[in-house]
């Protein structure tokens, strides 16, 4: 007598989106059906297309529509360097620096025991295999400097040590352009501890 | 070299959702493709289904999968009363009160000049036609007490007057269980103005 079943199903389905509760899902469903049917149709098609086309690169694990992504296939990258990041977005951020010409491995997540994501959920054995292929000389850990990112970096260090692969971590410190007044004490303490010699 | 095109399209398509900007769309797309492909599939199917099945009731304008919705077809409702609400959600709210047994008309929006929604966008002539079918004796305006809702109510009053149909507005005042201390001055002023006599 109240909500038609197809609308009910749509509201329910929209709840798969993170951060969308029952009220928001209802609002989104009404909006799509009342104000933007073209957008709704496009979204349905884009979802189907992406579900069909997207998989993980067999080498770097990022999203790709081919077996191995363009970057991994490119001969122009330094194959001795492997930078480990949490997400494809992080990888794009690194690329925008134009400061790195090696290859990547995208974890597609982070070790996060509270969310039930451990080393096996992240398939870290695939990273180990990738790093042990003979070409990689240095693994650069570029996970976030959050608790989970640090735990992940620690775990990876343990996993990779004693394998004649150098393991490094990108530097922490005061951001470029940063004023000490506005930097948090933790970052500042780290910047002290990891200070670099300039002159003797 | 960076984002696969199907992923790019998905990110773009997710932006049709109100309140979702480029960063959120990216986050949602990665989440769906990495963590909840089943949810993504369900969402795509629910969208397609709803797009195919949902239309507007020819009498009350709410979402329905049939020409005329169950409520309008029901013989148990008082056909002399027509309650005008902005959205199907509002209609559900009214139903939950069990205080009303008449029929409804759902505007599917409100007059909102700033958003380019005027009387013709709301197809108010359909409401006029519905209210003039001979059976309706009173139209109860239950649009929101927001600026847009009040403007809509005002517009509808003008449209419906001098047609030998009673037009009324649901009451404003202090909410049931409300403490005066926490009621805003506007509501309180209205409660004064619309006070009801109890004893002489």
Description:
- Two copies of one chain form a homodimer.
- Chain A is an alpha/beta fold and 200 residues long.
- Chain A folds into two domains: 5-53, Helicase, Ruva Protein, domain 3 (Orthogonal Bundle); 75-169, Dna Topoisomerase Vi A Subunit, Chain: A, domain 2, CATH 3.40.1360.10.
- Chain A has helices at 5-14, 22-35, 37-53, 70-73, 88-96, 124-131, 147-160, 185-193; strands spanning 55-56, 63-64, 78-85, 102-106, 138-141, 166-169.
- In chain A, the strands form two sheets. A four-stranded parallel sheet of chain A has the order 4-3-5-6.
- In chain A, helix 1 (5-14) crosses helix 2 (22-35) and helix 2 (22-35) packs across helix 3.
- The longest helix of chain A is centred in the N-terminal third of the chain and has 17 residues, at 37-53.
- Chain A is globular.
- The termini of chain A are far apart.
- At the A-B interface, helix 1, helix 2, helix 3, strand 2 and helix 5 of A face helix 1, helix 2, helix 3, strand 2 and helix 5 of B.
